[in-house]
What does this fold into?
Amino acid sequence: MTTEHRPHHRHTKPTAADGYPTATSLIQQETENILLEHGLSNGEPTLQKNEHLRFLARNMLQGFPAQYSSQDASQPWLLFWTLQAFSVLQVGLDPGNRQRAVNKILAWQHPKGGFCGGPGQSPHLLPTYAAVCALAIVGKPGPGGGWDEIDRAKLYDFFMSLKQPDGSFRVAEHMEVDVRGIYCLLVTATLLDIVTPELVKGTATFLASCQTYEGGFSSASHPFYSIETDRVLRVPRPNLGEAHGGYTFCALASWVLLQNYLNLDFSSISGPGDQPESQWDTELTRDKPEIDVKKLTRWLVDMQGSEIELGGFKGRTNKLVDGCYSWWCGGAFVLLEALGVGGLQNLTARDVEVDDIYSQAAKGGKGPAGEQTEEHEGWDDIDESLFNRKALQEYILLAGQHPAGGLRDKPPKAADSYHTLYCLSGLSAAQHHLYPSHPRKAQTLSIWKDDDSSSNALRKAIFCDMISWVEEEGTARIIGPATTNRLNATHPLTNLTISHTEGIMKHFYGQEVPPRPIPKPTGTKKVAKS
Amino acid sequence: MSTEDQDKPLFSELPEWADVVPIPQYETDAPIAPILYSVEYKDATDYFRAIVKAGERSARVLQLTQELIRLNPAHYTAWQYRYETLLSLSSSLEAELKLTNSLTFKYLKTYQVWHHRRLLITHLRTPLPELPFLNRCLALDAKNYHTWSYRQWLLSHFIDDEDLWKGEIDFVENTIADDVRNNSAWHHRFFVVFGCGVREGEEDRARVIKRELIFTKQNISLAPNNPSAWNYLRGILDHNNLPYSLLTQFVKPYTVPLNPNAVDIVDLENPPPVKGAELPCVYAIEFLADINEKAGDKESLLKAVELWKSLANEHDTIRRKYWEHRVRDALQSPASA
Ligand SMILES: [Zn+2]
It folds into this structure.
C-alpha cells in the first residue's frame, strides 16, 4: 500500500559532502536539517489562506511597518505584490479601494514618461512594470480609471532614451543595464501595444549574449566595440555574473516575448538586409540570434532541490533553496514549452517506445526494472512537466508559509511582500499547467481587425500569442485539500492572471478575444490515493 | 534604518534649510498601502523632493543625499541626483570613492552602491586599488552577485590593463581552494580563461585547455558531488567544441560505488575519487549518459537510456520527469531509428 502524501516516508538522504566540508556544504547541511523538520510535520499540507489574506490586508489598509522604508523606492512593487497576491488567492478589491489604488499609481507617473519608485522620484523600468501591472489589476478605461491616463507616447520616448548600442537598456538614466529591466520594458510595451521594431532591434542578441556556460542567464554582458566600425563585436562578450534564477526568468520570458519580432525581422520576405541600417545594427544582429535551449533546460531542472530540501528551487548552483525561485525557476518551465521543449506535443505516441526500449534494456539483466515506484501512478499519466510539481508544492506549503501569515524564503525567516507573491505564483505554476494553444491562437487571429499600419503584422502576432495561453482541462494538480489550496493560474509571461492580462490588452489593442470555456469543477482533483 | 544618530537634528530644524519648503509625498491624507515612515526618513525625503523640484545643485544637496542614502541605500533617485550634482559641482570623485567604500561594506547587497562605484571608476580610471577592496568585500560575502559582476565589469572595462589582470588566475585558484563549491568563483574562472578573449601568454589554447581539464578533474576527485566543477568541465568542452568522450576513462569510476580496495595511484589525467567520496555520483552518471547518447550507435543509446533510468528511479528521483524526457528526446533522434 502506498499513499501519495506521507511525509515520514520521505527520502532523507543529505546532499553528499564527500567527507570534504566547505562553507557551502556546512550551510547546506544546516538548512537541510531545518527543512527536514518542517517536512516531517504530519497532516495534509494546507495553504493558510486566511492568515495570508490577513497579512496582505494589514499591509494594504494599515500600512507597511517602518522597516519597509528600505523599499521606499519600490512603492509600485509593494502595491503590485500585494494586489497580485490577492488575485492569485482569488480575491478582488472593492471599488473604493480599487480607486484609491489607481489614484496612488497615477501619482507615480513621471511628467516625462514612465513610472517612478514613488512620487517625486525618477522614472525607472522596474517600477514601470509594477505600476502598469497594478493598473491591469485595479484600473479600467475612462476618466480616472487609470488606463487612459498612461501617457504611452512619453513612455515610448522614455524607453528609447534608455536604449544602448548593444540592444540593451539602462533601467534609468545613468543607471545599470540588466535583463530585469528588459523584461519589465517588454511586458509593459506588450501590454500597452507600443512594441516597434525600432524599440526591440538588437535586444534579442543582447539577451542571447547573457547565457552562461552553465545554461542559465547572467545579469548582463559586457560589449566590446570595433575600432573601425564602432559596432559591438561578436566576441568577446563576457557575462557579468553567473547563471541566476531571477535573471534567467527575465531573459527567457523576454526571449519568448521577442519571438514574433525575430520571426518577422528575419523572415525571407523582409530580412534585416532590406532595412535601412540603424545604430543597433551590430556585427551580430545581421544573424538571427540563438540560445542553447537544451542547456537552459538542464540548468533549470538542476535548480530544483532534492527530497531533503523538500523540492524547493535554488537560484544558483550550490546555493540554498529559496521560496521566491518557485516562480523564477518553477515558472520558467512553461516558457520552455513555448520554445518546444517538453510539453504535451512532445509526449504523445512516445510513451510506448520508451517502455519498449527500456524493457529491452531490462531484459539484458541490467537496470532497476522492478523499482518503478507505484506511488507516482495516477499523477504522472497526465503530468508532462519537466520539473517536480508535487515536490515544489510541498516546499511552499510546508516550509514557505509563515505561521503568522505571509510567505517567505525559508524557515526560520520572516515573511515579506515579495516572497508572499512569488511563493504563491510558484505554487500556482506548480498546480496549473498552461500552454500556448494553437486552436486558440488561430481563433484569435481570425477575429483580429486589421489596420493598414506598417506595424499591423507584428502587433497582430504579439497579441494573438499572448492570448493563446490556456490551461488544459483536467491537468491541474493540487497537493492538499483542493478547495482550500487551489489558486488562480497566472499568465506565464506577465505573472498577472489570464483575465487581467486579456482585459488590459483588449483595451489597448482595440481587439476582441475568443471566449474561454468555463473550467469544469472536476478539472481539479485532490491527489490522494491508497 | 539608522539608530546611531538619535540626536541628529532634522532638516526642518536646521537654519541652513529654512529657505526650502518641504514637499510631502502624497496630496491625499490616507493613501492606500502606505509605508509607516520614521520621522527622520519623512523629513529627509520631504526636503529631497523639494530640492529635486527646484533643480538645485549645491554642496548641501550632497549633504542631504548622503543622509538619505544612509537611511535608504536603495533610493536610486538620491544616488542619481547625487551623481549629477557631483559632476555639476566638479566635486572630488576621489573623496566620493572613499565615502562609497564605507557605504559598500555596509550595503553589499544594494545595486545602487555598486553602480555608483562603477560610474566613479569610469571617470577616475583607477582600477588597480579596486582589487584589494573587492577581496575585502568577498571576505564578508564570498558569493555576493554584485561584487562578482562588478569585478567582471572592472576587468572587462580595463581589458588591456596587464597589471590589473596579471594576478587574476591565482586569485581565482585561491578562491576555489577556499571553497571548492563556490560557484561564483568557478564562473569567474570561466570569465577569466574563456570569456574575455585570448590574453598574452595564453595563445597556446591546447595547453590552456589541458590545464583547465586537469584543474577541474582534480577538484572533482576531491569532492565529486560538486555541480560547480562538473558544469565547468562541460563548459570547457562545449566552448572549445570538444567531445565529452575525451573524458570517458576519467568519468567511469565516479559512476559506480566506491571501490574500497582501490590503491592510491597518481594519475594526473584521470585522478580517482578520494576515500570519502559518496558514489555513484549523479553528475558523473549524467555525463556518461551524454557520452553514450552522442556515440550514435544503438547499443550506446541503450546504455544511455539505462543510465537515465537509474537516475530517474534511484539516484536522482526528484528529477525523474527530466530524465524520462531525456530518454524520449534521445529516442526521437535519427540514431535511434
Ligand atoms: Zn528569495
Notes: Residues A 322, 324, 409, 419 surround zinc ion (CB under 6 Å). Chain B has a mean pLDDT of 95. Chain B is about 60% helix and 0% strand.
